[in-house]
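Q: Please design a sequence for this.
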């Protein structure tokens, strides 16, 4: 079943159907394929001058074939009949010399999605280059007007429209179009070695949902200026409060720990935690692939299985790992509709996932903490997902008497993820970053190392 309703989609569907037919003719027992096309515009300005103005389009195809239990995955960019025929022949030839994979498979026909909802994933209005340059100019001008700003790191705007078709030899055909628009600006405050830089940005599926350019510019300027005079703070053990754009990185560590690929490889500390408490009892994690204008919204997963709304953590309890067909078979469970496509390979992905907010305002959280470290930036990776050992560099502000005080830098956070997750609490300011949402997040039990 297909959701296609444009000439571009229909052309891509024709190409993917031709490819699967060719793969079968040259010896594939089964196959699946994706064909994609994209068109994008990017513009950039700095100090009032246009620096970049680019438009590009691309198309490609990814094919996975099964031959006597052996598998090969290939990619190409030639969508002509001859190009597709060569791709199919190469894939089948490679499969004959590849090791067997007992877990990789196509879905059974009864597992496939049959109802593909129409989602608001594509803005029908393409912005003009002039509009995008004007947005960038307005954001940069607002940033340069902030007292203390001495230079511009530049402003950029972008638009991308993508079409994707997935098809399998066992009967699935689905397509989706999506758009992404973005605007960002970077400010520089101070002089010489004392310079500080920060940024702000907005991403959206629909252009009308982008933040106001002036608001983005002012925030970038304020964030840069407020870092001036930052020094390394003292070693302490106080609550750590992560602003939303940093909290979403901490949230991503939690989501990575329930990835089925990590689970079956034995590289996740939550491999045996389904049905057990993992995060603080008052918190939940939700997923909604049908979220209107959500940047992670999708009508089916990367293997043609249906997707659904989920409560991944329910009042602190882990309810499921995230699986595609292969990891589910290896784990002995049912697939969860979380397959993603990365080229011809099938991985794990999730759609519009967020950590539940509370009714507590950020101001109330700071006041209740009294003294704390408010983190605005993290450096490095710093997490061992097998042991839970955590260590990252951080900058931000010291909280004194419940309000943000002096800026601090060159701090190191350390702790155990298991303890950190159980000691989490959230504020009310749920903020979305792409397909993930997080509010301001507080954790206790971390060591803050400084001077």
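A: Design:
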């Amino acid at each position: 079943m297909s959701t296609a309703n444009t000439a571009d989609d229909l052309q891509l569907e024709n190409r993917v159907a031709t490819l699967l037919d060719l793969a079968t003719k040259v010896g594939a027992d089964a196959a699946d394929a994706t064909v994609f096309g994209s068109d994008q515009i990017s513009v950039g300005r700095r100090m009032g001058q246009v620096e970049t103005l680019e438009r590009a389009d691309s198309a490609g195809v990814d094919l996975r074939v099964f031959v006597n239990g052996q598998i090969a995955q290939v990619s190409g960019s030639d969508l002509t009949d001859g190009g597709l025929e060569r791709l199919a022949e190469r894939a089948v030839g490679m499969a004959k010399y590849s090791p067997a994979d007992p877990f990789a498979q196509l879905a059974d026909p009864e597992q496939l999605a049959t109802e593909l909802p129409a989602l608001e994933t594509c803005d029908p209005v393409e912005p003009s280059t002039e509009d995008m340059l004007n947005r960038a100019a307005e954001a940069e001008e607002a940033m340069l007007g902030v007292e203390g700003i001495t230079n511009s790191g530049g402003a950029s705007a972008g638009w991308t429209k993508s079409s994707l078709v997935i098809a399998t030899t066992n009967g699935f055909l689905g397509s989706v179009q999506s758009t992404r628009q973005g605007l960002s600006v970077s400010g520089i405050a101070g002089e010489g070695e004392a310079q500080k830089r920060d940024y702000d940005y907005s991403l959206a599926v629909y252009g009308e949902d982008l933040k106001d350019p002036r608001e983005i510019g002012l925030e970038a300027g304020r964030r840069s200026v407020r870092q001036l005079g930052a020094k390394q703070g003292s070693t302490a053990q106080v609550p750590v409060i992560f602003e939303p754009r940093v909290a979403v990185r901490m949230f991503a560590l939690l989501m990575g720990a329930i990835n089925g690929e990590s689970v079956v490889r034995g590289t996740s500390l939550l491999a045996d935690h389904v049905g057990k408490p993992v995060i603080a009892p008052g918190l939940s994690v939700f997923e909604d692939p049908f979220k209107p204008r959500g940047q992670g919204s999708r009508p089916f997963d990367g293997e043609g299985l249906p997707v659904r709304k989920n409560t991944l953590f329910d009042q602190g309890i882990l309810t499921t790992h995230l699986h595609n067909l292969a990891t589910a078979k290896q784990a002995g469970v049912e697939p969860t509709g979380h397959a993603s496509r990365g080229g011809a390979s099938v991985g794990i992905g999730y759609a519009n996932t967020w950590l539940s907010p509370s009714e507590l305002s950020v101001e109330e959280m700071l006041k209740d903490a009294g003294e704390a470290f408010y983190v605005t930036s993290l450096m490095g990776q710093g997490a061992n997902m097998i042991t839970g050992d955590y260590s990252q560099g951080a900058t931000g502000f010291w909280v004194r008497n419940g309000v943000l005080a002096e800026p601090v830098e060159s701090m190191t956070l350390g702790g155990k993820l298991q303890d950190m997750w159980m000691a989490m609490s959230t504020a009310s300011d749920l903020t979305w970053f792409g397909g993930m949402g997080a509010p301001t997040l507080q954790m206790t039990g971390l060591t803050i190392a400084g001077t």
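Q: Thanks. Anything notable?
A: The mean pLDDT is 95. DSSP finds nine helices and 21 strands in the chain.
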